[in-house]
Amino acid sequence: MIQANRLSLLFLGFLLSFSLQGQVTITGKVIEKGTGLPMPFANVFINNSTLGAASDDEGNFRIYGNIPDEFELVASFVGYKTISKTIQRKGRQAVYQNFDLEFIEDQLSEVALKAKRDKSWERNIRMFKEVFLAVPDDPYGRDIEILNPWVLDFESVKPDKGFKYTQATAQQALQVVNKALGYQIDFHLQDFRMLRNASRFFGQAYYKNLAPSDSTNGEQWKTNRELNYQNSTRHLMLSILLRNAERQGFELYLTKTESDFRVRTNDFTVELNESIIPLKLDSIYSRPLGNGSYRIFLPGRIEVHHLSKPWPNDYYTNIYHAISWMIAPGGYVDVDRNGTLLYPAQLVLSGYMGRQRMARSLPLDFVPDEGFAGFVEELKLFQARYKTLNALREKPWITLNKHYFHPGENLWLGGRMLYQNPIAQDSLSRVVYVEIWNDKLKQVHSAQFPIQEGLISGGIQLADSLPVGDYILRAYTRWGLNFPEKDRFEIPFPIIPEDQQVVFSENVEEDEFGDLVLNTLYEIQDSLNFRKALIHLSLADSYDNPVEADFHLSVLSGFVAPELSQALRLEKALDWKDEPLPDTFDSNLPFSIDYGISVAGRFSPDRKKDSKAQVITLVKGDLEDFGQVRSDSSGYFWATGLMGQDSISLAIAALDSKQQSLGSVSLIPFSRPIFRGSFSRIPFQTQSISDVRERLIDLEGDFVQLEEFVKEETREELRPDRNYAYGDPNQEVGEADLETKTWAEILGLLRFNLNTLKFRNYTFGEETGSPLLIIDGNSRPFLEKEEFREILLGYDPSQLKSIKVYYDNITNAAYGMAGYAGVMIIETKNGFRTGPEEGRRFNPAEFDVFSIPGFTSFKEFPIVPPKDQLLKNKPTLYWNPKAITQKGSLDFEVYVPLEVKKLWIKIEGLSEDGDPVYKLIPIEIGK
């Protein structure tokens, strides 16, 4: 039976995260407490780093460098109590902090201190050095020493509970010189305890680089620092985060509890899969905590083999490398993105890593150089994860047909998605959630609308019962909930009485057009029941070249205030794109991307022994759409890509080979985020309308409706000349290329990755499966990836007539989930063509059937009035949330009530170059 080394070290020296950030300046002043006199030559430093400075003659100090977002700032002076403060700079590039140092009254002279030392003290100092500096057989122990050991005092402590221990204290900083690593360290000891089989210490350390005596000396320090970083606790934890522990020379094993029924041996091959079980990195779960730190969950006592560190050991007779053991008493450890333990008490070490003392300690701002064979590059990518996440951010921006309302009115909204990386547009959300909240923080309306090519359009019928007051419209995407709250949109608006109108000041700031010029021409035509304004807009650059743009366009009656606050303009919203995530941000992205209406649920098998991981079948209505997803080991499943309005009937089940249900399904409701922060209000003034002969409010029934804005599509006959109901493809390869090019060249033209089965970068973050494959009219949805590749590559390209692909904005309700990963239509030269399967009827007997909310239906803004009726006066005369210029021009007609003498034309959008465009145009139309 072998004896393991029972000494474990709980090293509490490294407490704060050192996630490097931009260049920051820390300034302040050190004064004596009580007198207020400045203290020159005081040391001020960031704990466990090389960043520090001495105060000048006036007590002022200045530290400049890569400063972490959160750090411990320490001030010390001989004979005075050391003070430390935890600073959170919150992105600031300059920090000011003062220190008041208190004199220690009972200071003894160096001579007096030396005179007190006896044999007991000598015995304790030897033990102290073994715990604090280096274990007895560590070769680095020869090159490290304490220059002022006499400042140490020792005391034997017997607590009420627990074991007796020896405590060490120091009234001055320990001055440590490490000639092996090239550091002088001022260590301010806060706590030191030695027990029979464990020890720990804690304090603040200030590292100063020693001046090398020659170039050889400096190179040796560099080598020794990197050798001590390798195989350190910090190196191991970072390699676990980076999922490359094997490449970094670590093998991990889970140790089983020893049993009386089995005697452990010294043979590694015998113990493998008996007392130690190989541990894969995938089984070590880690998750970001959202502040630049991570939590690593350790499943038990872990044995670490340091394959790159030759080491004699008596634990195994046939292993010749270093071995360590680690256990997290709480089940997890928290580290920063450099792998540094934030709370070292969370981890107990023994074996090789338990030997690490001050002789092998490195400052937290030490980073290995390029000699770590790709490790540094992975480290940089990992530490810059916030940049990757930042590129995946999106935020809605919403504008309204007008900016105040009356109870019972129609509210029409338009908007667009803002993207930190516009290239990711088609791989991000296709659903926006919209809510209206009152000033009591109660939600009074909710809706969800499709995002089509980055644009938003919708409408909400305000309740007649809504009280007069201040309201906020909030908009967000499910994916956006993975990011800070500033990625949600809010626009305040008031609801006022019907006999009131808002007073508008026409002192509008200069229009936002940059170097662009907008010209407006209009013609007024009279008729018996209304007037018609024919309006022509043209947009050009400074050289009179036409410029394309898309607008949110509204025309209001002259009595309506067209704008209440310039802060609500699109130009202001675009400032969000200049606000990147802080480099301490991280997220495990718990919210998925909506590619259509989505459902989350959980499957529970009827028999306990059956797996919860099953294929889940979802059927919309009477087979209008269907799809299959997989539940995980807990039974959870997620499906997205459904289309439909208002209420959707959805049948869900896990079926066996005989189409019999294996259990029950329950849905998990989407928990909408609560309202946080302050309730914004817009200052405004109202005045009474003296003669209210009719309700001057916006109702959709006043005009003739041309068409519904969103309607349920019916399945179109699958015909190749109509591209099987999909319209024009995004990419197409014809016979000429198919007869001369290889599959690799063809797939390149189609921008299709055969490994991931994704088009370009679309459907990011989703296991979308295979695109919908249609071959000569035969639909092959939900193919396994290997099956998809086998079918596709089984064709000789020269025998094909065409390949057409669709990969952006696949929102056809007839194909829904089957098509949101994309569609590939193949026509062969000698194939057959079929129409849709007729007469299908779905039997939901084995399914759980649910009614889920679809997209919110609404009436498109009415455009044309009845010609034989007098046109009623109303606030909004025209609304088009998706106006697009053609060759720099836009023509439209506005029907105007006879009593309206003035119009406001409000244009807001983006030019083709992404520049904001805003224009408020008054039109006087006479008597």
Please describe the structure with a list of short key phrases separated by commas or semicolons.
twelve-stranded mixed sheet; mainly beta; 927 residues; seven-stranded antiparallel sheet; 12 helices
Description:
- This protein has twelve helices and 53 strands.
- By secondary structure, the protein is mainly β.
- The strands form twelve sheets. Strands 1, 10, 11, 12, 13, 14, 15, 16, 17, 20, 21 and 23 form a twelve-stranded mixed beta sheet that branches.
- The N terminus is likely disordered.
Secondary-structure topology with pairs:
Blueprint lengths: L7 E4 L11 E10 L10 E4 L5 E3 L5 E7 L3 E7 L6 E6 L5 E3 L2 E3 L8 H7 L2 H14 L11 E3 L5 E6 L7 E6 L3 E5 L4 E12 L3 E12 L5 H15 L3 H9 L8 E6 L12 H4 L4 E3 L7 E3 L4 E5 L4 E9 L10 E7 L4 E5 L11 E4 L23 H9 L1 H6 L3 E7 L9 E10 L11 E8 L4 E10 L2 E7 L7 E8 L12 E7 L4 E3 L14 E10 L4 E10 L8 E9 L12 H4 L23 E9 L9 E6 L4 E6 L5 E7 L4 E8 L8 E5 L18 E3 L42 E3 L1 H6 L2 H7 L2 E2 L4 E2 L12 E4 L2 E3 L4 H9 L6 E7 L9 H4 L3 E6 L19 E6 L22 E9 L4 E8 L5 E10 L4 E9 L3
